[in-house]
Amino acid sequence: MTRKLMMCGNWKMNKNYAEAVSLSQLISNRSYKNWKDVDVVLIPPACDLKGVSNVLEFDHSPMQVGAQNCHWEESGAYTGEVSPLMIRDCGATWCLVGHSERRQMFGETDTTVNLKVKSLLAHGLKPIVCVGETLECREAGEALPFVTSQVRAAFAGVDARHAGEVVVAYEPIWAIGTGRTATPEVAGEMCGAIHECLAEVFGPEAGERVRVLYGGSMKPANVERLLAQETIDGGLIGGASLKDEDFAILVEAALKASTARGANRLKK
Ligand code: PEP
User: At what angle do helices 17-30 and 49-58 cross, to 10 degrees?
Assistant: First the structure.
């Protein structure tokens, strides 16, 4: 089955309002109409969501906007949190869930990840669920069971009709922001195993619709080799998404990979 490639820029806690508007404008200026052939999602801090979505709307850009986090409740006494309704109101259609920085620094657990996934779907938003192992876990030979258990927990009780609306990002923690990338073979193998797990969770047909991205120091120098792995359906990019020229190179690489995959399929 053909899964549309997807490239997401996670700006983390970078860019104030003016900088976020300017960066989204620069990226939009570099984008061409064919960027619609890959789903491109800008994921700024919550306070910049509206500004970035206004730029994209004004430019009639095919790019989409995502939030980095949200609470699972619609409203209430949750100081410092934002709800799915609020991020949707600011123009977001996607939301990261369970990024390793949130799991490690802000107490996010498999249980809260699952609550957020269900709440986002119930409010018409699409979750990008981040999973990934620590270096200790990998060295102990536990990476695969650990990551698949995170996938199963995230989607527990989620109906298979939602499979086309959810995305998984495989992000080995040891590769995030470290400059150290998983080799294309390791990343491809892990994403392949996640696809198999998703086929068990949602059933083979629905499971095949879920995109699995790779994240962890993806940059212009390694993007082509990573996307040459057909089990990797795109990237979740941190550092390299903060420069418009680098991010544009990554999206162009995804467009090339998408064309190559189409040609390979025709040959088969
Ligand atoms: C991320 O934050 O999800 C990420 C992959 O960061 P980086 O690309 O900087 O490693």
Answer: 30
Of these residues, 108, 133, 171, 252, which one is catalytic?
Answer: 171
pTM of the complete model: 0.96
Between helix 17-30 and helix 244-267 the angle, nearest 10°, is 40
Decide if 151 contacts 201 (C-beta within 8 A): yes
Q: Which two tokens mark 237?
A: 């990019």
pLDDT, one tens digit per residue, over 5-52 is 999 999 999 999 999 999 999 999 998 777 999 999 999 999 999 999
Out of 99, 108, 195, 252, the active site residue is 99
Torsions phi, psi for 138 (to 5 deg): -65, -45
The minimum-distance atom of ligand 1 relative to the CA of 171 is 5
**Could you tell me the CA-to-CA distances from 226 to 103, 138, 202 in Å, in that order?**
25, 19, 26
252 close to ligand 1 (CB < 6 Angstrom): no
Closest-CA residue to 198 (of 169, 223, 176, 226): 169
